[in-house]
């Protein structure tokens, strides 16, 4: 029940003046064309992480960065899904720090990133502006279980509409950290993931 309520509330926050049905159902322009051209054309593999969830389940995930797509969270989720991927989530702080390091040191990302302002959208939202702890993964409704490594003075809920989450850096931090971001009407790269496996026994 909580998951359903949270997801509904999250998407209502995203809606603003646009119909919620339009956000959830519209196909991103050019998405299917990119699929037919091949996965390797559309994405760069950032890396792979293998570890254990907080419940002790072993898992492995791989992460992919889009070469051409630049979108807000709703469109990013749809594009990842079109390639049988998911918008990235993190199970533990260990995974989080590893992925931050992977993205920061990936040669392709470094070649296109603006060191003064570069943020990558991931799959999390809040319903509590300026809160450092009340953030949830939208694909499951689960609260983020670890202390988020925020960039300095973040989250700041800039211009009263930053309900989504991104990783990256700007002039305030030398290393990749977290930042709150607008959910709509932005052109940002994003990070997709694939669960290679999870051992549930």
From TrEMBL:
Keywords: Signal
A Pfam family per the record: Lectin_C
Residues of the C-type lectin domain: 52-193
Signal sequence, renumbered to the chain: 1-17
UniProt-recorded name of the protein: C-type lectin domain-containing protein
Species assigned in the record: Chironomus riparius
């Amino acid at each position: 029940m909580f998951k359903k309520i949270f997801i509904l509330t999250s998407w209502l926050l995203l809606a603003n003046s646009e119909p919620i049905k339009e956000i959830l159902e519209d196909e991103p322009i050019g998405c299917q064309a990119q699929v037919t051209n091949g996965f390797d054309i559309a994405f760069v593999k950032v890396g792979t992480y293998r570890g254990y969830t907080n419940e002790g389940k072993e898992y492995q995930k791989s992460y992919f960065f889009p070469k051409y797509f630049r979108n807000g969270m709703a469109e990013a989720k749809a594009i990842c899904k079109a390639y049988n991927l998911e918008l990235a989530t993190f199970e533990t702080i260990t995974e989080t720090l590893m992925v931050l390091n992977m993205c920061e040191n990936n040669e392709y990302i470094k070649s296109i990133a603006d060191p003064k302002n570069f943020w990558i959208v991931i799959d999390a939202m809040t319903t509590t502006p300026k809160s450092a702890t009340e953030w949830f993964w939208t694909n499951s409704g689960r609260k983020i279980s670890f202390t988020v490594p925020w960039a300095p003075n973040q989250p700041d809920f800039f211009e009263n509409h930053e309900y989504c989450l991104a990783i990256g850096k700007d002039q305030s931090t030398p290393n990749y950290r977290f930042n709150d971001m607008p959910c709509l009407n932005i052109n940002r790269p994003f990070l997709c993931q694939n669960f290679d496996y999870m051992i549930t026994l």
